[in-house]
Design goal:
single chain; nine-stranded mixed beta sheet; four-stranded antiparallel beta sheet; 7 helices; binds uracil
Amino acid sequence: MSVRLDKFLSQSGERTRSEAVRAIRSGQVCVNGQPVRDPGQKISENDAVTLAGQAVADDALQYYLLYKPAGVLTAARDSHAQTVMDLLPQALRRRKVLPVGRLDKDTTGLLLLTNDGALAHALLDPKRHVWKRYLATVEGRLDQEDVAAFAGGVALKDFTAKPAVLRILSANGQESRAEVEVREGKFHQVRRMFGARGHEVTALHRACFGPLSLPQHLKPGEHIRLTQEQVDLLRQAVQNA
Ligand code: URA
């Protein structure tokens, strides 16, 4: 998504459009360190804009979807390991965009990021029943008893999981593949649910979060900015709960 530089400046601070144009023409505005004198230049969310040497932040609420690769931590920062924030341009980190919940280090797939704390909180609230769909590869043969156990709520050491949907895609004595839908997101929840049934998870991938699916064209490590329609769908998902 791109926007004119003068529009961005006037939207992100207390200045009118004509004040923004004057500031740009006077050479005080830099994009990614280079002075820009054209008010119509298009910039995107990945560009760093400064006015008289000060960063200009777009304070508006921002929503992104990242294809989390394996081996990357879902954390705001870590002194050793690579985090999902390291995959985002610095301009987004400055806008305090944070992950909505967590995926384990080895889990891949759809991760939402936003600076809209209220929506993030609602999306993670188990009472709102926002379903998340995963594709799991597990050891051993899954069967209808596992399907029934997930539907009834798998008992774990510290809590009983809410009823979940398990669809077996393939199963043999060595390995099975399945789709799982859960509406809560406790620590290692899907792995623990399979573990409680005697099936260790060897791969886990999140395909959907509520109404949003991982776009086909996105590659691991890539992100997109959500459209207004997609944000509205997320809002509806928490309201319909
Ligand atoms: N459940 C898990 O066990 N791990 C994840 O990363 C997500 C859901």
